[in-house]
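RECORD TYPE: inverse folding
INPUT: structure tokens
STRUCTURE:
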């Protein structure tokens, strides 16, 4: 009797769940509006992070101290697609690993019969713990800089398409939305989202792009928004302003490529210098040893 009752309750619960899934309740208006302006946390690292990183991120997600630590990296996290909790969890886990690596290695050596003393593992822990804590931030800065360079390259192409659309007689809003839909990749996705948010909130598209530039710490977007707004207010041609900004971005991109090429050439000369120094030492050491031995 009890088993039949439990089976009946289970079947009834399954039918109710199926019916609720087929006819879900309407989403409240306040939640729908909040979801419209909500950006979900990036899942780039969450999908690939080890279990220790995800567990530490869950513990640090709502910590005020954690928020203060990652606040200087807000724009870099936004550009790199990393959530603040996961970045802080990476720093914490690597810092702990740097702190305990030397004592654990020393204990293993002691188990094998090798005595290293206490001074060496202590100094290694003092050095490796801060290094492990700050290493993810340095890597984040480097990755964010690379993604900003990619964004500037995409922005140059975006502005070229906008200028062509304006020259063909289209309006500013239509030209901006068409240019955002013309490309692929995360820069165009971000610009498309910024334009959509500006349209839904009743702002000008240039204001949406300027806000995006502030979030990503890309001053070119802010400069573009300011120049385009000034051109509209002064009655100047927006197309000329957009084309000039596209040319400036291309020139900056070429300058960065040339600087990177020169830096790579200088780095390539370093191994040759080291090789020549080794060759000189190899040739001079026998003569110096002979002179010193004869004194």
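DESIGNED SEQUENCE:
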């Amino acid at each position: 009797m009890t088993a039949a009752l439990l089976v009946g309750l289970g079947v009834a619960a399954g039918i109710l769940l199926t019916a609720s899934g087929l006819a879900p309740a309407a989403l409240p208006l306040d939640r729908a509006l909040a979801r419209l302006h909500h950006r979900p946390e990036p899942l780039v690292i969450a999908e690939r992070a080890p279990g220790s990183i995800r567990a530490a991120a869950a513990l640090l997600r709502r910590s005020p101290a954690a928020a203060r630590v990652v606040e200087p990296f807000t724009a870099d996290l936004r550009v790199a697609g990393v959530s603040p909790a996961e970045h802080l969890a990476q720093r914490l886990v690597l810092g702990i690993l740097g702190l305990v690596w030397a004592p654990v290695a020393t204990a293993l050596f002691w188990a094998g019969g090798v005595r290293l003393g206490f001074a060496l593992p202590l100094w290694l822990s003092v050095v490796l713990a801060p290094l492990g804590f700050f290493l993810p931030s340095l890597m984040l800065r480097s990755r964010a800089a690379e993604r900003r360079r990619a964004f500037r390259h995409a922005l140059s192409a975006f502005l070229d398409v906008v200028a062509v659309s304006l020259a063909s007689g289209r309006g500013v809003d239509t030209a901006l939305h068409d240019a955002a839909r013309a490309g692929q990749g995360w820069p165009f996705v971000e610009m498309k989202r910024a334009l959509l948010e500006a349209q839904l909130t009743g702002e000008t598209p240039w204001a949406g792009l300027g806000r995006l530039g502030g979030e990503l710490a890309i001053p070119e977007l802010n400069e573009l928004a300011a120049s385009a707004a000034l051109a509209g207010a002064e009655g100047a041609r927006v197309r000329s302003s957009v084309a000039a900004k596209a040319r400036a971005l291309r020139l900056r991109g070429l300058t960065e490529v040339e600087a990177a090429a020169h830096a790579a050439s200088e780095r390539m000369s370093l191994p040759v210098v080291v090789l020549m120094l080794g060759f000189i030492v190899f040739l001079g050491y026998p003569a110096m040893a002979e002179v010193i031995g004869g004194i």
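NOTES: The two ends are 109 Å apart (CA to CA).
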